[in-house]
Amino acid sequence: MPSRRPDISNLADAVLRGERAALARAITLVESTRADHRDDAERLLARLLPRAGNATRVGISGAPGVGKSTFIEAFGLMLIGAGHRVAVLAVDPSSKRAGGSILGDKTRMPRLSQAEAAFIRPSPAGKSLGGVARRTREAMIVAEAAGFDIVIVETVGVGQSETSVADMVDFFLLLIAPGGGDELQGIKKGIVELADLIVVNKDDGDLAAAAKRAVADYRHALRLLVPADGDAVEALSVSALEERGLDRVWQTATRRLDAARSSGAFAARRARQAQAALWREIGDGLIELFRDDEAAARALKALEAKVAAGKVTPSAAAQQALEAFTRR
Predict the structure, then answer these.
(1) Distance between CA atoms of 93 and 126, rounded to whole angstroms?
(2) Average pLDDT over residues 44-51
(3) Confidence band (pLDDT; 50, 70, 90) for 97?
(4) Angstrom distances, CA of residue 7 to CA of 35, 75, 194, 257, 274
(5) Phi and psi (nearest 5°) for 198?
(6) At residue 324, does pLDDT exceed 60?
(7) Which sign, positive or negative, has the C-alpha torsion 122, 61, 76, 133?
(8) Which of 119, 245, 267, 273 is most buried, taking the most CB atoms under 10 A from its CB?
(9) What contacts 171, CB < 8 A, 6 or more positions away?
(10) Confidence at residue 241, expressed as pLDDT on a 0 to 100 scale
(11) Complete domains list, the chain, with CATH
(12) pLDDT band at 189, cuts 50/70/90?
């Protein structure tokens, strides 16, 4: 028996009224990979888009053990106390073997998950690279249309490769743990270079001194990465556990965002992000068309065997497959 398709008009109206159940259903719909769901999702997003785009989008990344969940919970509660409504889109790693994901962010943020002005949505990363899920950008649109004025995107948190979040947020915050031994060596091109603010967490207890040293090291090293005409990336320390220093993080973010809005850099960044999203969708769509083509699938099976046997290079095999597909 075919599943009942949602009434998109009613669902959109419920999202715009801020109904939490509708918000959850809408995000589930936009994350679906079914063809009929994708059509419904695009119709839903078209209705919600005029009411989206006014929130502040904050990306937060950091390696496992840095205290992302503790920080986000304390940070979110502080923002709610200041009168904001906060949506957290948390991306969990998916198993490469089984494809499953734990999705345990609500259990790691119990106080924030119970706050009336907060909404936490864990999503599996799936096959997407870069620390975010493929439909995180669309989920942000839904949350913004529902009236959340701050949307936090928490990345998977597996290392230095999580740069995709920088292409969809207004402010990218990188959490660092003190005493990790990489305060200077860790200033690498990549995720650190893309961050708008570096926050050394766990400035408390036995790690307090190490956290302050880490901030000093980062401030010194960051001067080497910033172009002469660029805005200096700042570094500061906080204790998410003791809820200290969080106000300085938000003050720094709002100051930089206000300056970006005044200069036009904010609008330019959003425009670049939208264009980048367009090309990602084109790329993903072409790959799906390629994989769904029966003739291409047959050719690929033979080419995969040749590549595995070392009879042809992967680049040459890819070129042959693409030529066969484009001729069709």
Answers:
(1) 7
(2) 96
(3) very low
(4) 17, 36, 41, 38, 28
(5) -105, 125
(6) yes
(7) negative
(8) 119
(9) 56, 57, 58, 59, 196, 197, 253, 256, 257
(10) 94
(11) 1-51 (1.20.5.170), 52-262 (3.40.50.300), 275-327 (1.10.287)
(12) low
